[in-house]
């Protein structure tokens, strides 16, 4: 496409850049949403995981906030596929939202995770969640949980694996 969307982390605005000429990208708009840590784009809608600000749905043409979902938590990462948003909430597990009406995202289901999720990925009906944490000896460890979403109203755990080392994302 001809646009790039940038989430800048803590207290920085959501930014829209045009890249008609990749040698000379330009900032065309920004929105002071703050705390944007991950973005998924679907058409003109940019879904922003905003940390303690939850999920924002932004009409990127403006940009203006079209809707939001904020239950006490910390939205760290997300994937949007069709009319569903899958949000890694570091305080509330994995949240599955109906985003057919971007102005009013609606919680469909919360999946409890064993570790606070940092990232999420979907492959068909299989959802992968990764977390990082420090154990009692302050060693950083990673944790993978796998869920079956073939029945979206009743997600079920398939497997899990803990491992040594830092983890930030999953694909």
Structure in words:
- The chain has 171 residues and is mainly beta.
- Helices cover 0% and strands 56% of the residues.
- The strands form four sheets. The chain has a four-stranded antiparallel sheet with strand order 4-5-6-7, with no helix packed on it. It has a four-stranded antiparallel sheet with strand order 8-9-10-11, with no helix packed on it.
- The relative contact order is 0.12.
Descriptive labels:
single chain; 56% strand; 0% helix; four-stranded antiparallel β-sheet; mainly beta; globular; 171 residues
Low-confidence residue ranges: none
Number of E-type strands: 15
Continuous helix count: 0
SSE class: mainly beta
Q: Give the overall pLDDT as a whole number.
A: 87
Radius of gyration: 17 Å
Order of helices and strands: EEEEEEEEEEEEEEE
What percent of residues are in strands? over 45%
Give the fraction of residues assigned to helices: under 10%
Shape: globular
Q: Layout of SSEs?
A:
Elements lengths: L2 E4 L7 E5 L7 E6 L6 E5 L2 E5 L5 E5 L4 E6 L5 E7 L2 E6 L3 E6 L7 E6 L5 E7 L2 E9 L5 E9 L7 E9 L7
Antiparallel strand pairs: 1-2, 2-3, 4-5, 5-6, 6-7, 8-9, 9-10, 10-11, 12-13, 13-14, 14-15
Brief overview:
This protein has strands at residues 3-6, 14-18, 26-31, 38-42, 45-49, 55-59, 64-69, 75-81, 84-89, 93-98, 106-111, 117-123, 126-134, 140-148, 156-164.
